[in-house]
Each structure stands twice: as structure tokens, then as C-alpha cells.
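Re: [ENG-882] Designed sequences occasionally contain unexpected residues at chain ends

Forwarding the minimal case from QA. C-alpha cells:
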């Protein structure tokens, strides 16, 4: 769909002939769901030079690019007239290649965060001829992909912007992921060929556990138990659409995630954003250490104005993004 003479929106599914996992397993006819939005700009060799790849959160997909509405509107730092965003539903998620969409269920190859990165890299090269991107933006587990991408392939991007994320799974996050793993593995029905009610009940319990991580530290102190119950029920209902087989392998990949020793490889300019009210990604352990771990790194700590841990409505973010992007332009000139 054409928005004007230059800016476009494209949604489609692309088929990779095959994809090889780190483990050596290979799948054929691999589906990749994606959306591209913005205005492509080309260099003298015909390569798109203003691509920004958006990496979505744990329970999201390509469409959560819309979460960036506050910073991508006309006249905003990432005006679609100046940038070309590509948002890809990650490996292991329902509408791309996943345990549920392939029908392989628990027989789907175990994958890593690096596999998720390579899945996107292969798609970008095959579909768009893109081997280097201008930047990567993401939040939460999307940040895991970004850190991994920038560590493993440091020459492939100019900048990274990560909000509310970490460079390893440890401490509280490890405990939560291990608890979810235990819930799933406690059921013999997981290895059945039939998706039954017991698996749905497990997903209800898992989503109640996940629920607390989507809000700031303060919000629960300001709500009654009745209000918490209402919000929890809504959250759990939404989570019932998540397939347990997709969820299990997604969680397995997170359990093994740790790029702390590789952060020194990052060459891209990095803008890292965190909230002082985040319960899941804490400033003292997941944010502040990055100042000494990534060479060209700027840190922004903010206090959210809303109940969710989100930076899009903080007016300081626009100013910081403009400054960050202006500095990038100066470096490239």
C-alpha cells in the first residue's frame, strides 16, 4: 500500500528455501512474517541505506512496530519519510516458522537467540538484498536479539537503541524462566500429539507469573487487590492465544542467553534506555554496568509517566533521540 509518492507500507510472508540452526538442524520452506514501513533511500550502488530493523518483545510480533508511534510520527525523530523500518516476526513465533505453525510441536529444533538473529539476517539478504542496516531498535527480549546481533556481527549496523532489556539471563529472570520451564515439563501431556485442557491450564499459570513483570514497581502499590485481579484476568486471557510449544522453546532460548563477555565487540553507537521503576530489568544490574561494557554507549534513566514500563510518552526521549541521531550524521559525514 502506497502512503504517498515515496513512503510505503508492505506486509507479507516470505519463504526461505531452508534455514540452518546453530545445532546443525535444517528446516525447508521456512516462513518469515514481516512488515516494511517508511521511505527507502538508496546509495550509489542501489543498496537501501536507511533501514532500521525493529525487534519485538517476548509476546509480540511484527505488528508491535506500532508501539513506536510516539517517536515515528511525522516530524518525530524517526519520521517514516526519512527512515525505512522493517519489522520481522521472530523465529519461533506463531506466524513465522515455529513449533505450532510447522506442526512439529515439541519436535521443532531447539534454537538460540543467535538463531533468531540469523533468521532475520538471512531474510533481509534474500528478500531485500540487505547485508548492513542503519540501525536496530527493540525492547525486552527484542533487546536480546539486538545485543547478540551487535556482538556477533559488529560491522553490520551504525547504531543500536535498546529499552528495558539486559545482556544476560540471571538472578530473578533466571528463576522466573526456570519456574516456567518446570511448569511445562511437569505435564506428560506436553509430549502428546493432542493439545488438551491441561496444557491450557499450564499457560494460565504461566501468564499469571508473567503478569507482574509488565508493570512498574509503583503501580501494584497503588491498586486494590480487586483491581489487580481484573487486570490479571485480562492479561491471562490474552496469553491463552500463545501456543505452549512456541512458548517452551522461546523460554529455552532465553535461559541460555548471555553475551556479557562479547559486549566489548560492539562497534555501533548505542543508546540504552531504562526505567527506575522496572521490576524485571533493574537499572543497577542490567543498565548501569553497560557504561563500562560498551564503548560508544549513552545511558538514559527515566521514570515512566504511565503504569506500564514504557518510554514513548516521556518528552525527554525525543530530545535525546534527536541528539543521538544528529551525532550519528556528523560521524558519517
Amino acid at each position: 500500500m502506497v502512503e504517498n509518492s515515496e513512503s510505503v507500507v508492505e506486509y507479507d510472508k516470505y519463504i526461505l528455501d531452508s534455514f540452518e540452526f546453530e545445532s546443525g538442524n535444517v528446516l525447508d520452506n521456512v516462513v518469515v512474517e514481516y512488515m516494511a514501513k517508511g521511505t527507502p533511500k538508496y546509495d550509489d550502488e542501489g543498496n537501501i541505506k536507511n533501514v532500521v530493523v525493529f525487534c519485538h518483545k517476548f509476546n509480540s510480533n511484527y505488528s508491535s512496530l506500532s508501539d513506536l508511534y510516539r517517536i515515528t510520527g511525522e516530524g518525530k525523530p524517526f519520521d517514516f519519510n526519512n527512515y525505512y523500518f522493517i519489522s520481522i516476526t521472530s523465529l519461533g513465533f506463531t506466524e513465522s516458522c515455529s513449533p505450532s505453525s510447522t506442526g512439529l510441536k515439541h519436535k521443532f529444533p531447539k534454537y538460540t537467540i543467535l538463531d533468531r538473529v540469523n533468521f532475520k539476517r538471512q531474510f533481509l539478504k534474500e528478500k531485500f538484498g540487505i547485508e548492513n542496516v542503519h540501525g536496530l531498535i527493540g525492547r525486552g527480549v527484542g533487546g536480546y536479539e539486538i545485543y547478540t546481533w551487535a556482538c556477533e556481527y559488529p560491522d553490520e549496523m551504525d547504531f543500536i537503541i535498546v529499552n528495558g532489556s539486559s545482556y544476560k539471563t540471571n538472578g530473578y529472570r533466571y528463576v522466573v524462566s526456570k519456574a516456567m520451564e518446570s511448569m511445562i515439563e511437569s505435564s506428560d501431556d506436553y509430549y502428546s500429539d493432542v493439545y488438551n485442557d491441561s496444557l491450557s491450564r499450564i499457560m494460565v499459570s504461566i501468564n499469571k507469573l508473567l503478569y507482574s513483570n509488565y508493570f512498574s514497581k509503583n503501580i501494584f502499590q497503588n491498586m486494590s487487590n480487586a483491581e489487580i485481579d481484573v487486570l490479571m484476568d485480562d492479561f491471562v486471557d490474552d496469553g491463552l492465544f500463545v501456543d505452549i510449544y512456541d512458548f517452551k522453546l522461546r523460554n529455552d532460548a532465553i535461559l541460555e542467553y548471555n553475551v556479557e563477555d562479547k559486549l566489548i565487540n560492539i562497534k555501533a553507537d548505542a543508546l540504552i534506555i531504562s526505567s527506575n521503576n522496572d521490576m524485571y530489568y533493574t537499572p543497577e544490574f542490567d543498565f548501569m554496568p553497560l557504561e563500562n561494557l560498551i564503548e560508544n554507549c549513552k545511558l538514559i534513566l527515566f521514570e515512566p509517566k504511565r503504569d506500564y514500563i514504557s518510554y514513548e510518552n516521556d518528552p525527554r526521549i525525543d530530545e535525546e533521540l534527536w541528539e543521538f541521531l544528529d551525532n550519528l550524521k556528523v560521524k558519517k559525514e
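QA comment: On inspection the terminal residues look reasonable. The first strand starts at residue 8 and ends at 20. Proposing we downgrade this to a documentation issue.
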